[in-house]
Amino acid sequence: MLDATSSYNPMDSRIPVADRTGHRTVPETTRRTERRLPGTRYGNRPTMKDVAARAGVGLKTVSRVVNGEPGVTPETERRVQEAIEALGFRRNDSARVLRKGRTASIGLVLEDLADPFYGPLSRAVEEVARAHGALLINGSSAEDADREQELVLALCARRVDGLVVIPAGDDHRYLEPEIKAGVATVFVDRPAGHIDADVVVSDNFGGARDGVGHLIAHGHRRIGFIGDMPRIHTAAERLRGYRTAMEDAGIPVEDAWMSLGVTDPERVGRAAREMLSGPEPVTAIFTGNNRVTVTVIRVLAGHPRPVALVGFDDIELADLLQPGVTVVAQDAAALGRTAAERLFRQLDGTLLGPERVELPTRLITRGSGELPPAD
Amino acid sequence: MLDATSSYNPMDSRIPVADRTGHRTVPETTRRTERRLPGTRYGNRPTMKDVAARAGVGLKTVSRVVNGEPGVTPETERRVQEAIEALGFRRNDSARVLRKGRTASIGLVLEDLADPFYGPLSRAVEEVARAHGALLINGSSAEDADREQELVLALCARRVDGLVVIPAGDDHRYLEPEIKAGVATVFVDRPAGHIDADVVVSDNFGGARDGVGHLIAHGHRRIGFIGDMPRIHTAAERLRGYRTAMEDAGIPVEDAWMSLGVTDPERVGRAAREMLSGPEPVTAIFTGNNRVTVTVIRVLAGHPRPVALVGFDDIELADLLQPGVTVVAQDAAALGRTAAERLFRQLDGTLLGPERVELPTRLITRGSGELPPAD
DNA sequence: CCTGTCTCTGACAACGTTGTCCAGGCTCTA
DNA sequence: TAGAGCCTGGACAACGTTGTCAGAGACAGG
Questions:
Q1: CB contact under 8 A, B113 and A134
Q2: Which of chain D's bases lie under 7 Å from a protein CB?
């Protein structure tokens, strides 16, 4: 499952067990004696039982105080509070969860938290979760289907109440038992594969079509498209938008104008340079996401002729470049917020069936998309 | 504690209780009958007991199969696996955690996940956690001390094994009982207040001193400093670096050159414009963090004379602006990685006492810091 | 003084898992 | 063939909490 690089690996399901000589590793409870708090049991945290004993009351009375339930005299409450304070007691939510069934936590599986697109999305999900008293567990799939599944199932084992998933894989049937068991699930940015589930996406098709249309309106005909791997739904949709815009304008698309694949700077840079060379180079480029846009901007900065550019996704400082970068912006925070809200409505029971919600994109013109063709 | 905007609020400790008429709300276990899986108990997920019953074996045998423990015949294992498959059983880690004591999860409390500085940091922590088989729970404090404490204590109640905290508040004595109880703790970016704990920081002082020194070396004397609120440790350290560099160069600093406070664009923009006006305007500005830098770049873009600029924190596309933005870069990912590694070493027991680790910063020259004074 | 009601409190079971321990059946050897 | 030892499987307690229920006082009304 996961690599262990040290002795700490609590979820390891392999067997540390006694070896053939019968020796056993020292039980965990014996560590850190010197750090133990007076009044607590060896190496462990104080429990309600400890508090009850110290306060001279019953277990349930402590529970009542901790949870603010009624039916405790002020005097008793004071004694309990005092004991809690003195022992540094903190309720164990694991036990609580086990008893109550809900964990008050939701999981978010995305591609890469370091990507500036996902940071705001995650934050938005967190805010909604917070408003509902839930915590957020994040996981990065690194665009790997197996890792996505591993993460999702780990989250399910934790019994998160709900999942917000930005799919990396394209088959999510493995989630069916979980959904049946009541795990609320919303997919974001890309639809789920082979299951019927709630999904919140941007209007990738329309956004790309409008962005490319914008270039066409400014006189371009030879327009390049550099995007992500076509198995990624958003990439495919944006490509479809490109094709549609071109078709609507009656421009036959040449293969040399399109480049789809991994979005590392090397491949993208090569693709851009190829499109820009030869006897009939493109006069404009439409880029399929923020990473591609940044790379292409770098290429264009070193290019002799001006080349028009429209990028999908807004990027910071885009307005300060020369020329400013025209983009089709999607609202990452709104995606996250909408998804999380639907998630909690599923948990409330106020949501009927699975639905597909599409959020609009916005064309922001800043100059790069308005350059005329330099033929 | 937290606002509930709906009926879902599992961790609410206020009393939903029976009202005076004796009516009760419907127990949770009765929801979603239509979604229940055949073979499971009403509204609940299958447990090992269910699997054991279906496979015709004992409870512990199922546990053994699930955990890959030895001592189960292939035939028995097959039967158990079959039952697991058929019922869609997934081990309940809450119960496991309760029994084992470790949750295999760590908490990360930072200021704002949407900030491009924290995304990579969080991702780095996650990668280390993953290598140790642990999940990461994120929380944004929004630079609010109370919210930080609330988050940290909520994470402790979940019994996270460790905490990585980017402090918002300046008193962390509330964490003492937790640390004594064995919660590994590492502070990042800023030191903890009033407690002795592990901390990983950048060399804010040295970085700022070098950045300002760079401006001085290019002939500037009237150098402005725009930074965050001085109660934030990093802001104070960077200010100290600025003062030291000026002092070392024998330049008396004027009050009008320094501006400290919240880093919203409005205040920062006003501060920058003030420094740049009057009879003796600054000829260079040192900015105290990425947000400030971006705002100041915008101001400078509309300013008639060229003004030198060095910023703390690297920003994306800084190299593509005209001129390129010279920055003092800190390595957010390294901060996160180092902190997380120390955390797990605490859990391993291979770390001795609390320590302060300082990571170097790097001056990246791109042009804006090398502009001569425009006197 | 007794009875009924109300308030406060605590004993106990249950949540789902894992660790301990023991029993029964098997193989192997003396 | 009997005894020793191993392998497999299961009964049971425990983890820390919450829900249920019933008991113990207090107090008022008859």
A1: no
A2: 7-20
Better pLDDT: B7 or A140: A140
Among B29, B112, B158, the residue with its CB nearest the CB of A123 is: B112
Per-residue pLDDT reduced to its tens digit, B82-100: 999 999 899 999 999 899 8
Q: How many CA atoms lie within 13 A of B257 on its CB side?
A: 22
Name the CATH superfamily housing domain A103-202+333-359.
Response regulator (3.40.50.2300)
**Strand C protein footprint, C-beta under 7 A:** A 27, 56-61, 64, 70-73, 75-76, 95, 98-99; B 44-45, 47-49, 59-60, 63, 66-67, 89, 91-92, 95-96, 98-100
The CATH number of domain A28-91 is 1.10.260.40: yes
Cα distance between residue A271 and residue A273, in whole Å: 6
pLDDT at B75: 87
**Domain-by-domain residue ranges, chain A?**
28-91, 103-202+333-359, 204-330
Does an H or E element contain B146, and which?
A: helix B145-157
Q: Taking CB atoms and an 8 Å cutoff, what residues of chain B touch A119? A: 113-116, 118-119
Contacts of A217 (CB under 8 A, 6+ apart): none
pLDDT confidence band for B19 (50 / 70 / 90): very low
Q: pLDDT at position A10, please? A: 64
For residue A61, the surrounding DSSP H or E stretch is: helix A59-66
Instruction: Report whether CATH 1.10.150.20 matches the domain B29-91.
Output: no
Architecture of the structural domain at B204-330: 3-Layer(aba) Sandwich (3.40)
Q: Which of the listed CATH numbers 3.40.50.2300, 3.40.50.300, 3.90.1150.10, 3.40.30.10 matches domain B103-201+333-359?
A: 3.40.50.2300
Average predicted confidence (pLDDT) for chain B? 87
Tell me the two tokens of residue B160: 């996270």
- Does B204-330 match B29-91 at the fold level? no
Q: In 3D, which of A372, A246, A335, A228 has the Cα closest to residue A288?
A: A228
Tally of CB atoms within 10 A around B236: 18
Protein-to-nucleotide distance from the CA of B69 to the C1' of C26, whole angstroms: 21
Give A97-137 pLDDT, tens digit per residue.
899 888 889 999 999 999 999 999 999 999 999 999 999 99
Of B37, B138, B333, the CB nearest to A136: B138
Tell me the average pLDDT across B99-107. Answer: 90
